[in-house]
Write a structure and sequence with these properties.
single chain; 8 helices
Length: 311
């Protein structure tokens, strides 16, 4: 028997790259906190505003396994070990994300994240954010799962979408080099499900696929956000001493604090867009002063071009 992976590990072709900057939307308090502390927060995914986080992944992988293994002629004992409770896996995943958008001046984003005291979008380049995420992982390798490219492009799917569409998109568009499925969207090679070692490898590869999809799949209702995210996973049975909490709307929300400069001399803020507000000229000048006082140089500050008023 040849020693080949049960889940095919093929390099992804033409990984997606943003056309310009990636923008992090925040309110006044968030802007000041990010610039003064030189950090950004990654919030536990279970407490984000998308209530379907993780659920779509469960359906995508469950349907794929059901269609592939449901009528399998393989009857040995190892098949029993492939019965994975995906809902339990997702429920026990501790994924932390910080989100960015390809569009730095979008009305829906201002409405969602500005607050009554004004909003801002902070522009970064994707390679810089990739470096930020990778550096944080390296510093905390003891309790975070390794990932060569923690910056992910979100893909949007309906909860009832067929698994093949999501798998094909995962292979052709994702910027990740993690294990994916073969070109025919069949995650399992049945002829190789024969030994305990292969069963363990299957479980490992399946978990890698679940993690990759969990980090990138979102409900299509959020498609307008054009989201990219730094996604970080805690290892199993790990409690991070770096875990922090902030007040939420109804409960404390866990988050990780990520250092922005991966190197002491490199802080990659390139633009700040001031959201719709009563006094845009004064607001721009105030942000310029804030940047200067925190040693950010060469940052463009521009007002939003959207004539929206909520005051």
């Amino acid at each position: 028997m040849t020693n080949q992976p049960i889940i095919e590990k093929k390099p992804l072709v033409s990984p997606a790259q943003p056309k310009g900057l990636l923008y992090h939307y925040t309110d006044q308090r968030g802007l000041i906190g990010i610039l003064e502390s030189k950090t950004i927060w990654a919030t536990h995914a279970r407490y984000l505003n998308d209530t379907t986080e993780g659920k779509i992944v469960v359906e995508v992988v469950r349907k794929a396994l059901q269609e592939t293994l449901g009528g399998s002629p393989v009857k040995d004992k190892s098949m029993k070990k492939l019965q994975v409770n995906l809902k339990e896996i997702i429920a026990n995943l501790h994924m932390f994300v910080t989100s960015f958008s390809e569009n730095g001046d979008r009305l829906s984003q201002w409405r969602a994240y500005s607050g009554r005291n004004g909003g801002y979008s902070i522009g970064f380049r994707a390679p810089y954010l990739q470096d930020v995420g990778a550096t944080f992982l390296e510093k905390n390798i003891g309790w975070l799962r390794p990932d060569p490219k923690p910056l992910k492009r979100c893909q949007y799917r309906d909860e009832n979408a067929k698994h093949s569409a999501a798998f094909a998109s995962q292979q052709g568009k994702s910027g990740s080099t993690n294990p994916s499925v073969s070109e025919d969207c069949n995650p399992v090679n049945e002829s190789k499900v024969a030994s305990d070692a292969q069963t363990k490898q299957f479980a490992t590869d399946l978990l890698s696929l679940v993690l990759e999809l969990a980090a990138s799949l979102k409900h299509k209702g959020f498609e307008e956000e054009e989201e990219w995210r730094i996604a970080l996973f805690l290892k199993e049975k790990t409690t991070s001493v770096a875990l922090k909490f902030r007040p939420g709307n109804s409960m404390p929300v866990p988050y990780l604090e990520i250092d922005l400069p991966p190197k002491p001399w490199q802080i990659g803020v390139e633009e700040v867009i001031v959201g719709p507000c009563p006094n845009p000229k004064e607001a721009v000048q105030s942000v310029e002063s804030l940047l200067k006082s925190n040693h950010f140089a060469g940052v463009r500050v521009t007002p939003s071009g959207i004539p929206y008023r909520n005051w």
